[in-house]
Amino acid sequence: MSTTAEVKPSLRFGQVVIGPPGSGKTTYCQGMREFLSTMGRKVVVVNMDPANEEMPYPCAVDVSELITLDEVMDSLKLGPNGGLLYCMQYLEANLDWLESKLKRHGDCYFLFDCPGQVELYTHQSSVKNIFSQLGKWNFRVRSVHIVDSHYCADPAKFISVLCTSLSTMLHVELPHVNVLSKMDLIEQYAFNLDFYTEVMDLTYLLDHLATDPFFKKFQRLNEKLAEVIQDYSLVSFVPLNVQVLLFNFHFSSCGKEFLFYISKG
Ligand SMILES: Nc1nc2c(ncn2[C@@H]2O[C@H](COP(=O)(O)OP(=O)(O)OP(=O)(O)O)[C@@H](O)[C@H]2O)c(=O)[nH]1
């Protein structure tokens, strides 16, 4: 029996780390945790991915205690994609569990390591509802959308990354930073790095695609996609090499603002 009146927790800050499978979300959480701890911040990492088995970081809250992907796939005879959607719907239906776990960690900076399934962030509503509930619990979180920089090596893939990033930003509805991970692995780009990070003028990309016999057939479609991305004028990227957790500030003002947000939070 509770004897004291429920006190609304003070503001808590953090990041929800989202992005496609294998883009480097868990590695980022680990790197960011170490980086912030070194700066003297109290950081906790929350594993929101029911498929994550071996986390490299100490896990303050682990959704696998509530539900695991393997259990769901076995008991409901679902594949990995359907299983993950079910898991997030289950978490949405059991938010009191999450709230009680988060309450144990007061004045900390929170990193939420989220699952890597694209439709969770572009179509399905459970994850978006969970993020919005965090706001009602007095969390102020920003989404950090991690994308593998390997996609910069191919203009056609880069167009699809731009579309996915834009629809994620519009769907998730949080202050948002797109991060190009694994920059240490990129040996050469078709264009200068700032072309990918600033996403200012996609004409070069279209010209490049027009020289490819396969993509030439889809020139009009590519033009329209580029038009949508440019008209919204929302997508840009911050390059990241997690090995040193070094944001290249001089490439993007977004990077400055991002670290400013962390230090304020
Ligand atoms: N070289 C290099 N490798 C990286 C970097 N970030 C992540 N990786 C590697 O990429 C692989 C996938 O990284 P994870 O952190 O597991 O990716 P994830 O997005 O959490 O994956 P899922 O949870 O399966 O969606 C691992 O082998 C990491 O070591 C990076 O900046 N540089």
UniProtKB/TrEMBL annotation:
Keywords: GTP-binding, Hydrolase, Nucleotide-binding
InterPro entries, sorted: Gpn, Gpn2, P-loop_NTPase
GO MF term list: GTP binding; GTPase activity
Protein's UniProt keywords contain Hydrolase: yes
Pfam families per UniProt: ATP_bind_1
Domain of life: Eukaryota
A GO term from the CC aspect: cytoplasm
Role, per record: Small GTPase required for proper localization of RNA polymerase II and III (RNAPII and RNAPIII). May act at an RNAP assembly step prior to nuclear import.
Assembly with partners or alone: Heterodimers with GPN1 or GPN3. Binds to RNA polymerase II (RNAPII).
Family listed: Belongs to the GPN-loop GTPase family.
Official protein name in the record: GPN-loop GTPase 2
Native source species: Oryzias sinensis
